[in-house]
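Quick question about two entries, pasted in order.
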Amino acid sequence: MPRPAKTLWNRISRNEAVEAGLDYYFDSTSADYAVGFFETFLFHTKGKFAGKPFTLMRWQREDIIEELFGWKRVADDTRRFRVGYIEIPKKNGKSTLMSGMGLMLMLADSEPSAEVYIAANSRDQAGIVYRSMAEMVRASPYLRSKLSVIDSRKNISYAPSNSFARVIASESAQAEGLNIHALIYDEIHATKDRRLWEAVRYGGISRSQPLLCAITTAGAERSGLCWEQHEYAEKVIADPAYDPQFFAYIAAAEPDDDWKSPEVWAAANPSFGETMDATSFEADVKEAEQSSSKLAAFKRYRLNLWSQGENKFLDMEQFKTCCEPLLNVTSERVWYAGLDLAQTWDCNAFVAVSRGHDDVFDVMCRFWIPGDNAHKRSVADNVPYVEWNKDPKTGLCLTPGDVCDYEFIKRDILKFCKEQTVRRIAVDPHNSHYLVQQLQAEGLDVVGFSQGFSSMNAGCKLVETTVAQSRLRTGGNKVLTWMAGNATVKQNADGYIKIVKPSPNSSARVDGIIALAMALAMAEEDATRPPPPAPEIFVL
């Protein structure tokens, strides 16, 4: 079962702490004051709770707000926690909670000229918390009468105390010299540049009780700033005395938990049963059973499990069911192709698909690598390129020279297109301008196909679906099978996926699977395109 979200200290009074010689005590009056701010002045603005007072859920009240604002230092009665790390699955209301907390820190934390900043990897991401704050202000008659909201500047201000809350962009230069009372750093797992975090980390040094709070879901890579914070938080959870000023809260399943179990869903999601229910999880589980990338996303976003560094794209046992011989490959069939061109060392891949009468796609492949370094590549990559070249079923060709020979590749593609009816070829525009012009000059329909998330998403999901349903016939192509086993998937914040190598410097190649995704996307697009209008018939 999932581990506890945190380890509570015994909530002792100031007198008890002094008598015991402890440095911290729990002030129930301050904790109640913070909870009261939410439930008195704030209103929900979205979903089924829209328009209702912001009554904190139990975990929000007891595990976050009371803990953050109730604990004080015996020495000066200021807030105990200076840094907070909150990591929970999506859709549990963490951004809404942080929005309310940001308003309270600006307006009701007894701090003159309070400067509250909302940061993220991008201005748009930071704007999510800001917009929630602005909507809460507009929904509250009291706050609306006290605060000024300027959306164009993403700024909320309170004139009587000269306080404000505003978005700070990801550029660290803007953070230098800030006098920070509080900072909310949203989705820190997406941070690619740690300079902003470092710049704001000590921005509140002149304040009496600054608070820097990072909120996030689990990340995709076990490295970088967020993973460092996660590991530090784990140490604090295991032993709060490790850093008494660091607040840590993590809600997640264990890696070995049954991800299909409703008990695991509920334990990993503190808002389960209130902002979400089993129905949505059941639907996601059904999709995850059919897709490796969706399973990885489910575990990360729904159960808050960090990825293991590699998100395997395909189930290779399932891919092996797609290795049947091709059926009835004749010039009458219509083919769609994807062409992924490479630089000096990568493999060039041309993959064509044709939908059979049984709704299964036959797959034909061509691969090219420079012949002069083929043996060296075989040794370096530990891959039998030379032997594959001797097997005509692989479609692997060695081109003259030690760099990509696009003229050779062009002739090979033209030969294929003369033997088969190829309706459209999708090509990544990168490194392909000259070859595209040459192929178009030969009368082929060649279209640009970017390999970004939005372009590749549909084709990648088609690969997943056709493999899961055994709707591919690859003829057991050894090169394509090898590349399928190498392919990993990367996902962006919008849930779009694309195929990538296990790591940027990996010798594993995935070009054929990328080309397959492009080809399937072309075939699907043509299949769903409405037919041309029937010609008008004139009767004389």
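Here is the second entry:
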Amino acid sequence: MFLQRLVEYAERPGFDSPPDSYAETPIRYLIELDADGRLLKPSLTDTADASQRELRRGLRYLAPAVRRTSAVKALLLVDNATYVLGRAKDDTSGSDERARACRQAFYELVADCAQSTGDPGVRAVASFLEGQGSAQIVLEDDFDGTANISFSVAGQLPFERREVQRYWADRNETQENVMQCLVCGQIRPAQARLQRAIKGIPGGQPSGTAIISANESAFESYGLEASLIAPICGACAERSHLALNRLLRDEAHHLIVGKSAFVFWTREATEFSFLEMIAQPQPDDVRQLLLSVYGRRAGPVEANRFYAAALGANGGRVQVRTWLDTPLEEAQRNLARWFVRQRIVGRWGEEPRPLGIRSLAAATVRELGDVPAQTVQSLLLAAVGGRPLPSGLAYQVVQRTRAEQTVQPHHAAMLKLALCSQQPDQEEPMTQLDLSNTHPAYLCGRLLAELEQAQFAASPNVRASIVDRYYGTACTAPATVFGTLIQNAQPHLAKLQRDRPGAYAGIQRTLEEILAALGGFPRTLSLNDQSLFALGYYHQRAHNRAQAIAYKEAQS
């Protein structure tokens, strides 16, 4: 299904697919010939531009390209110095012999193309290679033997000729392994090894990774080897790989988080961008999306579908970790619900701001680069697939709050998202301080925040607060620590009563309200309870800060 949708994407009007077995390739050097194949100048024309990153390896052209192994296999009219000039890469044993074999293979391929197509430009190149023209070429000191070399004949590039393109496509169309293609369903020759590679996936080889491949007998079945374990015809392989590579290059269709790559697209073009909403959501865009859930659409969605895939790589192989195919309208509805569930008041009591998938994932780890693929995959499925988050994510966030001895906005948003995805009825009351919430864990979190408030109000320059010392114990076993915390708070309250009676009255009133509703301290807290504890602490802190700001503004 994944490959079928990619093929459909490549068949869209305006996709502008390259010729079969052609790919965008950097060509650094051009050998300039006249119409008869004579060398116009002894030096190579260098197309590279060191000042531009994309041109350091030369100008990019749609040129013949297939995947090849260490065996001798020439590319048509475009190849490196070993094939075009017979220049050995190094001085190791057998390198000269291999270089001669490579050049001979390159010449024979060009000669066959010239004979088959009758193209005058290809005949000129064949004439040049047949003679001693290569010996006349003078190489500069900074010559790069690994870069691609091609030919310019009377100012034109022979590999761009239509006849040459058809020849190369026919040559690479095998008549072996005729079987049913898993993508199009037609009985056609299947590729024993896919000729294109997927590039841009973290963890993959720089030369690219394969979607279908088997290199060990354990992965083979029914006598099928390599890419034949999941047979796909040349046309479907070409289109699916072109589509996926283009999605991975297009900033509007892919997202890299940690060691995972995500691609998003729709069956029909739409102005609504899931990537922008998930990666860097803006409040106005999210507000418009939320309105669409209640009747106003955020974009055209009728009869359209949304596709998403989570990809990873292991050496030379692509891992399709998640595949999602859902109606676009449902995906938008799920995304709107995702933003509602993560809504959390700001640290200073400001309006909630939507968080992207990176910020939420960062709440589970110390460094964003350490985010496991499963975490981002779960967030993606929750965002557009409407699935609940696994409890393991909440556990990771709770562990981070205990390690950091605090609760940051992305911690609180992630915990609320996890709780609400499993208990949807808790969505709105958990956005900010909820005075009606009498859950013991939530009240314990509020109590810790208020005791910290008393400490800071009495001793503004304190170095280590009670939260720095006791947060981990308070959020797991409240009964073992809160008695001590309340007792230790008495000197702070006495000092406030003497020096700041107004602040004392407010804090004392809040403490009494919390303790009256609490009744007793739980001995231990479950994972969900620890999440509620963190939210209670965060809500109370944000409420206290907002009140302090409002008081200062009223006094000014």
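Reply: The first helix runs from residue 2 to 10. Residues 269-303+324-418 form one domain. Hope that helps.
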